[in-house]
Structures are given as structure tokens and as C-alpha cells.
Design brief:
The complex is a heterodimer. Chain A is α+β, with helices and mostly antiparallel strands. Helices cover about 25% and strands about 20% of the residues of chain A. In chain A, strand 2 and strand 3 form a beta hairpin. By secondary structure, chain B is mainly α. The chains are: A alpha+beta, B mainly alpha.
């Protein structure tokens, strides 16, 4: 077999393509079944009623003292009766490139290949808390009863398994939450993200969160 | 509920700092002992006080460190999961593997080093275990391979604890390439201090012996390099801007952990021993009490460095 320079360069090109970061990105964002769940949280619609928090706690049997989901209120900006509040959803971002999964020494923290959901296998978790420290969104905690790492899993083992929407989405009275498949161009969530201005938290860390946010209309002035 | 030891962004607390310290001592002592044996002692290394101290402290520090770590897990009795489920992306998982190989090679190296003592001990007390001598003599054939491998593993272990923390993207001060190098060199410096301290106290190694001189010689350049690494760490954070800069200011710009850093790590651990070596006469410097005092200062400084990095590092979130 001859090895001309032309063949060599073409071959090296193929090697670079196959091993380069392109492939890694493809492997992580492309899903085999065409499902990659994400969520949009509309800050302009959220009224801070915390119905989502209560529903999450009930459906997922989250004990007192810890929570998978928190709505953080900031403000008010302006004087009564013009006082405005801002709300922020504090929960798992279901990163496409999750640091918690990368650091987990036993594979207890994993990204489900079929749905893109980041989840915890409590049977395998030893409670080293490396994932809790590694999560830049500070959403993980030790379940007080099971003594294992826990967090939002989009109700993968509860509502989603029964064919329902996640508890928070289902319970939201203002429809501030949209859940769906980011890989389906016809899904409601993709259309929403295409048509509205959204942002994601801490994208500079390269975690590729799948929690999209529609920013609040009211600004706040910071020093 | 916010204090120096309890704050919201804190995940790993003081047992981890002690663990990091113990692993550094073990890795540092082993690295020094292998070089000491090859460069200075060559034969009869098993009679040297510093080698004897390493034989006791190096494995013991790892064992104690790992026991602390296991009981820091929220489910201690599932620790064996770490030894059967491995994840190549996890620094901790690779560290577990490293620990196992390190302990095996360390015990093999020490067994070969002390083969005569072990043989005569078994002959006198445990004749039934004489077959151990056979294993050791097989291992002894690989001594030339064992030593470089031991250095490689000890260096890897010394850097490992730094990589363990630098994998945390959450904390800009920890997510830093200087950390593994800093941990390795401060580990070597703590290993040198521990070697001198236990060598001359427990094992009555004469302070004017070539081995104490050898360990003493490497202490100063290592400490100066450590000082430079600390400078590089914080200058890098300052120039990084944003949360990196905020992390540096929060850590060394005032407050409890800033005091620990300036007075404990820099003052007690680095500057005071350096100043003492410049001010004190040769006669004082060659006294046993001086050496013990300097070794204790070095060890305290590095223990405080581990506490400082761990706590101050977790104060600022990216």
C-alpha cells in the first residue's frame, strides 16, 4: 500500500476530526432517541407563589430542611405601589456537560443517555460530597434520610415515569414553566426559545445548562 | 450562622484539611527517603533513623488519612463502592486507584529495604511465617524498578490532592493549575520536616549525620519555591479578574482566614524559619532543640496552609 503525502494529510485530517472536541460535543448533545429534556423558566410570568416548590416536595417526597427547588425572591425595586420583585429558580440545571457527573468517583451521578436528565443512583452513592462541591449552581444536598446526594431529576422517577409533566410545571398557575425536548424542532420549548430572549446561568463555565430563563422585565441597579 | 468554620458555600470541612496534610506528609517523606537511599546511604539504609521514621510514618499517615476520609462519608460503610466502581473522569476515583498501588509499592519497597531485619525477626518470633522471606527475595530482584516507581507514585500522590481540589469549577480559587504543584512542594516540605522531627527524636538519628544534612539541604529551596508558588497563585487570581479576583481578596485581604495565611502560613511556616537560619549562629542551628523547633514550625505552617486553602477556597463561588 502506498502512502503518499496527500493520503497522509487526508488521514491525519480524519484522525483530528474523529478525536477532536467536535466529536465530544456531538456525543454529548446528540441523543439516540431524539430526546434531550430541558426547561424554560419565564421570570416575567413567575409571581413567586411557590406552588412549584410545594408540588415538588410532595411528589418527590423531599424531607423538611432540604429542597430540590427554591424560588428566590429579590427586591423590591421601586416604592409601593410600584414595588417590583424578581424571582429566580434555584434548581438543577441539567447540564449537558455536568461537573457533578465528571467528579463522581462511583458513577452514582450520571447523565441518562435516553433523556439527557442528570440523575443520582442512591444505591451507588457513598456520600463523599464531591458532586455537591463541584456543582457551580449549588443545587445538590445530602438527603437526610437516605444519606445520599439528591437534587431535581425532572421527576424522572415520579411524574415523568407516569407520563405526566414534572410536578413544578404541572402546578404552575401562571404557566411560567415550559418543559420539553430541546432536540425536537417542533416542540413548544424550542419554539419558545427561538422566539424569546433567554439566558442561561454561568455559561462561561462550559457546563451547557439546559435550564433556559426568560429575563425579568424589571432591572435592578447594582453597585 | 456565618463564621470562619461555617458558611453557606462550605462543603468540605476540617477532616479533609487533616487528610490533605497527612497525604502530603506521606508523599513527601517517601519521595525524600527514596532519594536519600539512592544518593546518600546506598547500603545499610535500614539502619538510618530517617528511613526508619519514613517506614513508620509514611504508611501510617496514609492509613490514618483514609480512615478519616471514610468516616467523613455520609455513608461510611459503603466506602468499598469506591474500590469496585471506577470512573475515569473523576480525579477522586483515579486517586483511589493510585492509593492502592502506592500502598502496595510502598510496602514492597520497605519490605525489600528491611529484608534482613524482617528475616531475623521472623526467625526469632514467627517461624511459621518464614515463607514471607521468599516473597521478599523475589521482590528484591525488582529493587531497581521499585525505586523509580516509588518516586513516581509518591510524586503523583503529592500532586493528587491538589488535582482533587482543582477539579472543582465551583470555586475559582481552587480551580487553579498552581494547586497541584503547590500541594506537591508543600507536601515535600512537610515530609522533610516530619523526617527530621521523627528521625532525630524517636530514632535518635545523630543531627550531624549525612542523612539529616541531606534532608536539611533540600528544605530551604523547597520552601522558597513554595513561597513563589503562593505568589503565583494569588497574582494569577488577581489578574484573572471577576470572581477569581474576588476570591483572592476574600482570602488574603482581611478576616480570619487571611490572618491564618499571613501569620500562620507565611509568618510561622516560612519566614520565621528563614529569618532564624539567617540570625542564629551555626552552633545554635546545629542543636537538636533548634531542629525540632524549626520542623514543628514547618509542619504547623503546612497544616495551616491546608486549612487555609480548603476553607478560604470555598468562600467564593464562581
Amino acid at each position: 500500500m502506498s502512502c503518499s503525502r496527500r493520503h497522509f494529510i487526508a488521514g491525519m485530517g480524519a484522525v483530528i476530526f474523529m478525536t477532536g472536541p467536535v466529536n465530544r460535543t456531538l456525543a454529548q448533545t446528540m441523543s439516540i432517541n431524539g430526546i434531550r429534556y430541558g426547561m424554560v423558566y419565564d421570570e416575567t410570568r413567575c409571581i413567586g407563589c411557590t406552588a412549584c416548590m410545594d408540588a415538588c416536595r410532595e411528589v418527590n417526597k423531599v424531607p423538611e430542611g432540604v429542597s430540590r427547588l427554591n424560588i428566590i425572591r429579590s427586591g423590591p425595586t421601586g416604592e409601593f405601589p410600584e414595588a417590583k420583585y424578581q424571582f429566580y429558580r434555584h434548581s438543577c440545571q441539567h447540564c449537558d456537560n455536568p461537573p457533578c457527573v465528571d467528579v463522581c468517583p462511583t458513577g452514582a451521578s450520571y447523565k441518562d443517555a435516553a433523556t439527557g436528565i442528570v440523575d443520582v443512583n442512591p444505591d451507588r452513592c457513598v456520600g463523599c460530597q464531591y458532586c455537591i462541591a463541584a456543582c457551580p449552581y449549588r443545587v445538590r444536598f445530602i438527603h437526610p434520610v437516605r444519606k445520599t446526594a439528591d437534587k431535581c431529576n425532572f421527576c424522572r422517577d415520579t411524574n415523568l415515569a407516569q407520563g405526566k409533566l414534572p410536578a413544578c410545571v404541572e402546578s404552575c398557575p401562571t404557566k411560567a414553566l415550559t418543559f420539553g425536548n430541546l432536540d425536537d424542532p417542533n416542540s413548544e420549548i424550542v419554539k419558545l426559545i427561538e422566539n424569546r430572549t433567554t439566558y442561561r446561568a454561568k455559561v462561561h463555565l462550559g457546563t451547557e445548562p439546559k435550564m433556559y430563563r426568560i429575563p425579568s422585565k424589571h432591572g435592578e441597579i447594582k453597585g | 450562622m456565618s463564621s470562619a468554620f461555617h458558611f453557606e458555600s462550605l462543603v468540605w470541612d476540617w477532616p479533609i484539611a487533616i487528610y490533605l496534610f497527612l497525604i502530603g506528609v506521606s508523599a513527601g517523606m517517601t519521595t525524600i527517603a527514596v532519594f536519600l537511599k539512592r544518593r546518600v546511604l546506598v547500603d545499610g539504609a535500614s539502619r538510618d533513623g530517617i528511613i526508619k521514621a519514613t517506614a513508620i510514618i509514611a504508611p501510617l499517615a496514609v492509613i490514618v488519612g483514609l480512615v478519616i476520609l471514610i468516616f467523613h462519608l455520609t455513608r461510611p460503610w459503603t466506602f468499598w463502592h469506591l474500590m469496585i466502581f471506577y470512573s475515569p473522569t473523576s480525579v477522586m476515583s483515579m486517586g483511589v486507584m493510585l492509593f492502592q498501588v502506592y500502598m502496595l509499592v510502598l510496602l514492597a519497597w520497605l519490605a525489600v529495604l528491611f529484608r534482613q531485619e524482617i528475616a531475623s525477626f521472623l526467625e526469632q518470633r514467627f517461624k511459621a511465617f518464614r515463607w514471607i522471606n521468599g516473597i521478599i527475595s523475589v521482590l528484591a530482584r525488582f529493587e531497581r524498578v521499585l525505586e523509580p516507581l516509588m518516586i513516581f507514585l509518591a510524586v503523583a500522590l503529592g500532586a493528587y490532592t491538589g488535582f482533587l481540589l482543582s477539579a472543582l469549577k465551583t470555586y475559582p480559587m481552587l480551580n487553579n493549575p498552581v494547586l497541584p504543584v503547590l500541594f506537591l512542594f508543600s507536601g515535600i516540605s512537610s515530609g522533610a520536616a516530619a523526617a527530621v522531627l521523627f528521625g532525630i527524636t524517636w530514632f535518635k538519628q545523630p543531627i550531624d549525620s549525612p542523612s539529616v544534612h541531606f534532608v536539611h539541604q533540600i528544605e530551604k529551596p523547597v520552601v522558597l519555591f513554595e513561597l513563589f508558588l503562593l505568589l503565583a497563585l494569588f497574582v494569577g487570581l488577581f489578574f484573572g479578574g471577576g470572581q477569581r479576583e474576588a476570591a483572592a481578596i476574600a482570602a488574603i485581604g482581611g478576616g480570619f482566614w487571611s490572618n491564618v495565611f499571613w501569620f500562620g502560613v507565611i509568618g510561622l511556616g516560612i519566614l520565621l524559619p528563614l529569618i532564624m537560619s539567617m540570625v542564629c549562629s551555626k552552633r545554635v542551628q546545629h542543636s537538636k532543640s533548634y531542629m525540632i523547633a524549626v520542623a514543628c514550625m514547618g509542619l504547623s505552617g503546612i497544616l495551616l496552609l491546608r486549612f487555609f486553602i480548603l476553607y478560604a477556597g470555598q468562600m467564593t463561588v464562581a
